């Protein structure tokens, strides 16, 4: 039975409904919470508090409420009403498509999640700055802005649970090291809506520093590869807003590098090629191969289209290989990949 619905605030202000239920055994684990996705899904499925519900694991990982069992209703069930204000900061909530957003940029729930995202391995890659440590830093009042991370001293960390001198010095060093991750990583890490790792790399490949980015127009952004009008407008608004200008100015003031080194010499065998990696490779870890190809001037994406130049197919390549063959896209196996990498 669904007993309660709470609204969780994500790093970009997204309000996600989470169901609390009587504990059930599902795929070998005890589950008490499940996602309800968004308010439109709740209304479409007519799910109510007090309903008996069907729950399954999406992708065998994330519990989700699939449907309600209306035949078991006895009249005590209540319709789920979307919040009109943020459950964390009481700021205004707006609906965009099927999702609800807290539009208060100072919302503490958003900031907490954004710092965790900022520090993650695929973002600024700050070793030792996990979720628990982020919570400690914010709860202790040590971090109110991304830039505050770069002003932490080891002695600030010693009073926190789990820190000794060695671990405190190591974390301060890891934070300092992240200053040189480059402009693409920073753009992805600060949590601008619709700007993830692939998009940030596209941006930084054309606008290699903050100043050139600030001079670009919405139309300039629309002209970028795989950019649409909504992404372009969102990016332009984010970097020119009061909060956006303050964000990047503060990061620059503490020494975070807001520029991107361009390749000294791209490999003509890969320059400007749109490439997709699929399947399991024996000699390459996917992230390392992606970085190598991008260093040589290629752009690596996650989906195959008519614009794709090459698909690198490993074992059990699946649907992407099939689509490449249907579209007549060039396909390389590992042997051909190794030969091409050796040509430079």
Your description of this structure?
There is one protein chain. The chain has 344 residues and is α/β, with parallel strands linked by helices. The chain folds into four domains: 2-101, OB fold (Dihydrolipoamide Acetyltransferase, E2P) (Beta Barrel), CATH 2.40.50.140; 108-179, 5' to 3' exonuclease, C-terminal subdomain (DNA polymerase, domain 1); 183-253, Orthogonal Bundle (DNA polymerase, domain 1), CATH 1.10.150; 274-341, BRCT domain (Rossmann fold, 3-Layer(aba) Sandwich), CATH 3.40.50. It has 15 helices and 13 strands. The protein has helices spanning 39-45, 108-119, 131-139, 146-149, 154-157, 165-177, 183-189, 197-206, 210-215, 218-222, 229-240, 242-253, 286-295, 319-327, 334-341, and strands at residues 2-9, 14-26, 29-35, 48-49, 53-58, 62-68, 78-79, 93-96, 99-102, 274-278, 299-301, 310-313, 330-332. The strands form four sheets. Strands 1, 2, 3, 8 and 9 form a five-stranded antiparallel beta sheet that branches. It has a four-stranded parallel beta sheet with strand order 11-10-12-13, with helices on both faces. α7 (183-189) crosses α8 (197-206) and α11 (229-240) crosses α12 (242-253). The model has no long low-confidence stretch (mean pLDDT 91).
Total of domains = 4
Instruction: Please mark out the parts with pLDDT under 50 across 5 or more consecutive residues, or reply none.
Output: none
Rg computed from alpha carbons, rounded to a whole number of angstroms = 23 Å
CATH architecture of the largest domain: Beta Barrel
Task: Label the overall shape.
Answer: globular
Number of helices: 15
Q: Total number of β-strand segments?
A: 13
Question: How would you state the average pLDDT, rounded?
Answer: 91
Q: Provide the helix percentage.
A: 25-40%
Largest sheet: 5 strands, antiparallel
- SSE string, helices as H and strands as E: EEEHEEEEEEHHHHHHHHHHHEHEEHEH
CATH class of the largest domain reads Mainly Beta
CATH homologous superfamily label of the largest domain: Nucleic acid-binding proteins
Stated plainly, the CATH topology of the largest domain is called OB fold (Dihydrolipoamide Acetyltransferase, E2P)
Alpha-beta classification: alpha/beta
β-sheet strand percentage: 15-25%
**Ends: how far apart?**
63 Å
